[in-house]
Amino acid sequence: MPDEPGAVPPRVAVVTGASAGIGRAIAVALGGLGWTIALGARRVAQLDETAKLVADAGGTPIVHGLDVTETASIDVFCAHVRAQAGVIQVLVNNAGTALPGAVHEMSDEDHRRIVETNLLGPMWLTRRVVAQLRAERLLGDIVFISSDTAINKRPGMATYVSSKAGIEAFAQTLALESEGVGVRSSVVRVGPTLTGFADEWDLTIFDELMPRWQRFGIQRHFNTMQPEDVARAVVTVVTAPPHMWIPIVEVQPVPPLDAV
After folding, report:
1. Less packed terminus of the chain by CB within 10 Å, N or C?
2. Is 146 labeled as catalytic in the residue annotation?
3. Which pLDDT tens digit goes with each residue over 36-51?
4. Which of 14, 22, 27 lies closest to 92 in space, CA to CA?
5. Please, which pLDDT band fits residue 256 given cuts at 50, 70 and 90?
6. Architecture of 12-251 per CATH?
7. Catalytic residue at 153?
8. Is the pLDDT of residue 179 over 60?
9. Residue tagged active-site, from 73, 164, 185, 186
10. Residues 86-98: what's their mean pLDDT?
11. 129/141 Cα distance (integer angstroms)
12. How do the domains of the chain map onto residue ranges?
């Protein structure tokens, strides 16, 4: 990772889901490199707050509403970024959603919302960015924010788990297709991180889920990371020198120290 902002050439980057949490932290960290950061999310008012933080960090923010579940919204967003800053060279597919619940109890709309946000949306946006990079013969980085649930399946999260496993498969296949053309496809797999991701959930469901997760050996401890920890990993991936590639990096909180 560069020791200071400006140690790598300036680039145009897009961060989806940049209105809060991990997305905001990634945008600010990339802004610290002196890059132009296009911020996309449905909550535009909160994007303005992120934009100020990006500017304070030394970046040049571009704010535009984006709903990754709507191809028309994706097209308008990409056209706006192209007009304002040029070709998108770095894409961080961070926007995501989850709803806990048993498969048979969740509605069709719940399943659809998760898959469209976490899987189809990144596919649609990536298609457009990669097509432009290849047409212009430019180097680029596509980063997919995944979850450790893609590996450690969790009861009560089946559709979310499936969407993250799917996006990792997509990222790996994109890497094969992009070999030799200068487009790196990478996954940042994230463990428990303290964000507002579950603010809409009925938290009483954890009274049921936590014992089940512990029974299966999935929830070994309750330490968490900060969004900035994930952002550090993303910066490492996209600032790797051109001769190397980081296919996947997983970040996890350390367990609590044993009492002495």
Report:
1. C
2. yes
3. 999 999 999 999 999 9
4. 14
5. confident
6. 3-Layer(aba) Sandwich (3.40)
7. no
8. yes
9. 164
10. 96
11. 10
12. 12-251
Residues of the chain with pLDDT > 70: what percent?
Answer: 86
pLDDT, residue 8, reads 77
Residue 215 has pLDDT above 90, yes or no: no
Q: Which of 19, 147, 160, 178 is catalytic?
A: 160
Where residue 131 falls (left for φ over 0; alpha for ψ -120 to 50; beta otherwise) is alpha
Place of tokens 């140690």: 7
Closest CA to 164 of 78, 248, 253: 248
Mean pLDDT of 140-156: 93
Query: Active-site residue among 73, 146, 162, 186?
Result: 146
Average pLDDT, the chain: 90
Query: Could you tell me if residue 21 is left (phi over 0), alpha (psi between -120 and 50 degrees) or otherwise beta?
Result: left
